[in-house]
Amino acid sequence: MPYCFIQDVAADEEIYRQVMDLVTNEPPAGLITHVAAKRDGGLRYVDVWESEADWERFRDAHVEPAVTKVLAGFGIEHTHDGVTIEELDVIHVWRGDA
């Protein structure tokens, strides 16, 4: 069953771009879709993965180290303060051809 979540972070487009530059050039194994959008106070990510384990592997191996490095460049400690995550029950995933 797919794993889906919404994550709100207090980051801007520059921080996001720098993190993505470090993460990977290829879609990771298990990723179905990732959307990053601006919102008041930061960014919102909507992710759908083939499994929660796929997300956790990618997060631990790539996302967390990249975020730590980028935030350190801005003099910001990498904590999860101000980050909210809401898991969603997936009933349907419809992909277009990217």
Provide a descriptive summary of the structure in words.
With 98 residues, this protein is of the alpha+beta class. The chain has a single domain (3-88), classed as Alpha-Beta Plaits (2-Layer Sandwich). It has 2 helices and 4 strands; from the N terminus they run βαββαβ. The protein has a 4-stranded antiparallel sheet. The radius of gyration is 14 Å and the shape is globular.
Report the total helices.
2
The number of domains? 1
Structural class: alpha+beta
Report the strand count: 4
Element-level helix/strand string: EHEEHE
Could you give a short account of the major beta sheet? 4 strands, antiparallel
Rg for CA atoms: 14 Å
Q: What share of residues is helical?
A: 25-40%
Q: Calculate the mean pLDDT score and round it.
A: 93
Bin the strand percentage.
25-35%
Which regions have little confidence, pLDDT < 50, spanning 5+ residues?
A: none
CATH class: Alpha Beta
CATH fold-level label: Alpha-Beta Plaits
CATH architecture: 2-Layer Sandwich
How far the N terminus sits from the C terminus, by CA atoms, comes to: 22 Å
Strand arrangement in the largest pleated sheet: 2-3-1-4
Shape, please?
globular
